[in-house]
Design brief:
Number of helices: 9
CATH superfamily: NAD(P)-binding Rossmann-like Domain
Radius of gyration: 17 Å
CATH architecture: 3-Layer(aba) Sandwich
Strand order of the largest sheet: 3-2-1-4-5-6-9
Helix content: 40-55%
Oligomer: single chain
CATH class: Alpha Beta
Number of domains: 1
Strand content: 5-15%
Number of strands: 9
Largest sheet: 7 strands, parallel
Shape: globular
Order of helices and strands: EHEHEHEHEHEEHHEHEH
CATH topology: Rossmann fold
Structural class: alpha/beta
Length: about 280
Amino acid sequence: MNNMQGRTVFITGGSRGIGRAIALKAAQAGANVVIAAKTAVETAKLSGTIYSVAEEIEAEGGKALPLILDVRDEQQIHSAIQQTVETFGGLDVLINNAGAIALTGVESTSLKQYDLIQTINHRATFICAQAALPYLKKSSNPHILSLSPPVNMSPKWLGMLSPYALSKYGMTILTLGMAEEFRHYGISCNTLWPETYIATAAVSKNLGEENTLHVSRKPEIMADAAYAIYTTNRGELTGQSLTDEQALARIGITDLRSYACIEGNTQLQKDFFLD
């Protein structure tokens, strides 16, 4: 599998979890992969760094560029995109994966938390897209993929998580807007969201590791779904909010049992914002 040979994928927040899985999938296809994230030193609470993932990428056959990046900093983003182009000669895929979570309503969300989720989620999507745009225009098959949910205005989600919903729906609205705005450039813009919980550090922090494994799928399902989207020919798929199941069904993959963390388990937890 080398149909990403010579193509460059830029992933924000890719030092662990879903971002790491997406990076390794791209590497297996021969891509140049940029891991742009904050974690440079492993801690007891956070395993994996941009450097450890870079080593894994190269072990899988891809080329890696690890970059320390705080997606709240406009200058850092522009510098990271510039370094990407200088290193690999271009940019083909932007994946807005970096994210912050606050599972609280307005009353319980501090202003600090509120500002954090807005800047890391939708504001970073905006800045990254602007920085990447001049180079995506030159790509033969450019894609922007944001890991954000379909916009669901159900009172259930708005009443429970409106600050977080705003930050994630903002990513989706921007990305769907770019699909139309950038259509004449031939840049495909879509969003991707897991149908069920995914076993990541963020989920384990809230549920505990054992509980997480019982109700979750592996991050690899999101990696395979992302790959199915950004390897689609430009213009064939754009302006869509897809779940991982929908993205995989498009390419004929409907048996998802192997993605369950516990083999054979079908009692999985549906993810946030999906009814």
